[in-house]
Each structure stands twice: as C-alpha cells, then as structure tokens.
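Students often ask why we bother predicting the structure of a whole assembly rather than each chain alone. The short answer is interfaces. A chain on its own may look different once its partners are present, and contacts between molecules only exist in the joint model. In this exercise we take two input lines together and write out one structure for the complete complex. Read the inputs first and try to guess which parts will touch.
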Amino acid sequence: MSAPDKGMLMAYADGRLTPDEALRVETWLKSHPEDAAEVTLWMRQNDAIRTLFAPVASEPVPARLRPARIAAEIGARQARSWRWAAAAVLLLGIGLGAGWAVRPLLETAPPASQMLIADAVNAHRVFAAESRHAVEVVAAEEDHLVTWLSNRLATPVGTPDLSGEGFFLVGGRLLPGEADIGGRAAQLMYENGAKERITIYVTAALPDHEPAYRLVSHDGAEAFYWADARITCTVVGTLPEDRMKTLSQAVYSQLAGTQV
Amino acid sequence: MSDFLDQIEACVPALRRYARALTRDADLADDLVQDCLERAISRRGLFRPAGPMRAWLFTILLNLYRNGLRNTRRRGTTVALDAMPVEPATPAPQPGHIALAEMARAIETLPTEQKEALLLIALEGLGYAEAAAILGIPQGTLMSRLGRARAALRAMTGGTGGPHLRTVK
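Now the answer. The structure tokens for the assembled complex follow.
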C-alpha cells in the first residue's frame, strides 16, 4: 500500500479511523518500525494526558457549577436589574415632571420687580393718555374705590394724599396681573393743575414678602418701585426725575409708613 | 428550558476536565467553567446553538480562557515555579513510559494554540472536524498543530522512540 500520511497515522493513534483504514495502517506499521514507534509514542502521550486529567470529570461537581442554580441566579439578577431599570425610569419620570413643574422658576425669568415695573409703566401709558375713561371709579367715590380695590386685592389699599405736591386723585381701576407676582393690580391716578399725571400701581405682596426698592427709568417713564410684606407699589410718571422722586417719597411715606 | 439546562449539565464534567488541563489550577478552571455556563445560560434567548451543545460550550470556554490569558499577559503576573519551562528531559525510567509529572509540565509549556488543540483531541476525544470548528481553524491547521504539539512533547518528555518500541498493540 502507499505510505499513509502523517494525518492518517495520527488519526490511527487517536482511534479516529474506520476499521478498514485502521487495518491498512496496521499493516503498514508492521513493516515500518519508525512510523510504528512514533504512533506508539503518540498513543502513550494520549494515555498520559488522559491519565493526568480524565479523573477530573469524575469529581463531584461543585454546586456553583450546577446549571439550574446558575440559571436561578441569572434570573434573580435580571429581576433585580429590571427593578433597577424600572426605578430608574420612574425617577427619570419624576425628574422630568418636577423639572417641567419648576420650569418657570428655572427659566431665566426677569425678577418680579422688573415685571411689575413693566406692567405698571405699560398701564400708565394706556390709561394716563385717556381723558374720559382714564379711571373706572372716580375720586368722588373715593371711599367706594378704596373698599373695592382692597377687597379685590385682598389687602388694604389706601389713597395717598399728594396735595402737598400739587397732585390730586383722579380715581382708580382694577387691572389683571400674574398670580405669582402679586396678582391683580390696583391703579390709582393723580393729576396736577398742568394736567400732568402720575399713576400708582399697587399689588398684594409677592410670595417672598421681602422688602425691595428700585428706582428705574423704563421705556421713557420714571418708575419708583418698592415691595414690603404687605404690598408692592410702583409710582410711574413722565415728570423729571427729581419731581418723581419727591412724589414717590410722598407716596412711600404714606403707603409704606402706615399700616393701612 | 430545563431540557436546555440538562444538556448543559451533561457537559459540565468535560468542561471542568478540559479547563483543568488548560489552566492546571482547580479553582481557576472552575471559575472558567462557571463563567462559561453563566454566559451560555444568559445567552440562551439570544443564541440557541444550532450545532451540538458541547461544541458551543467549548467555544465559549476557549474564548473566555483566551481573554483571561490576554488580561493576565497585560497585567504581567508572576509565573508559578512549576509553570516554568521544564529542565532538559531526563531519560524515562522505563522504556516507553512517560513520567506523568513530566508530561504535565511539558503540556504546560506548549504554545496555547497547540495545547488547546491537543487537549481537545487527546483528552476530550473530539473528532478532528468538531475540534477544528471549535478552534475556528481549518482541519489541516488543526492537524499541523497536533503534529507540532506531539513533537514538542516528545522532545520534552524524552520519548525518543527507539527500536525497542516497535511493538504495536
């Protein structure tokens, strides 16, 4: 027969040949001692390897290598991680919800004083220009005006006496406002002999009840704003700054100074 | 599911045996097997092996073993004394007899790819085709690795193979 290749010899040593093939190799080996020696050596190597390590397969298998137990542990781990995932989703939801809810606080909203001043100046522009409908309730009904506005603002609103400065009450009106910056507003209008007008824009106190004080020129008008624990008040007019200051001081001393 | 686990369980002794022979460390070997089983069981939904369970498990085990070797090499761990290359082989006490301790050390010094191949064939008794598939190599490559591994073992264990080994069973 032709010489079996090395793979064939190895397959013989490893017992991977069919009986026919094995017989042919055996025949060959009988007349080829070199090959026979090598094959024998390989068989001994195989034997030695099996002798060394085969007994491991007969050792009792440790509990940690039992598939059922591993499957149970994986199941428990996955359940835990599902719970964590669910918790994470829940927290994310809460975070988003809370974030959305406090969004107005987080947005770089202008401070309440700035918004109140803008509202006050805006209202001044609208109504100070009116002649017949400058006010809703005229000064002749001052008692009614005071009672009405105090009720609507849910805080006592007084009408300061600015006669010392030459200004007299024209009347007042109720204006809408943002709930979180004082709510509804009362606008009181004063006028002097030269038909110059100032308005006083009053709201209930801000949520923080913090005292504050600002004097600003806004949109061509002078605005003097203050806030205390009871009200916010913005005095608006287009008079020169020094006259506005004088008037504002008069308003302030009467509205802030008295616990009306 | 339980059938799947039963099939895996039937392979555990062989996996332990092979891992022990690869690592020569009982704890390390069982860690390897445990990792292998965990991977197989947790992946059962993703990948149901089409072929025999045994080949699939051995493939996983070998991948883990190689990854472990890579990590160990990166860490540069110390080499245990008895893992050092063997001293020049001493003559076998009996003609044709291979001293087991010597053989164990010799196997350890084989290149990993030769050791993996040889143990699949000699220890696990796998067919050449199956072993080649597990190792991800052509069968011809497997045969040459086996040949080199056996020649190396022969050189290291002093199995010179003389005329007195003529007898063949």
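Check your guess against this: Chain A has a mean pLDDT of 88.
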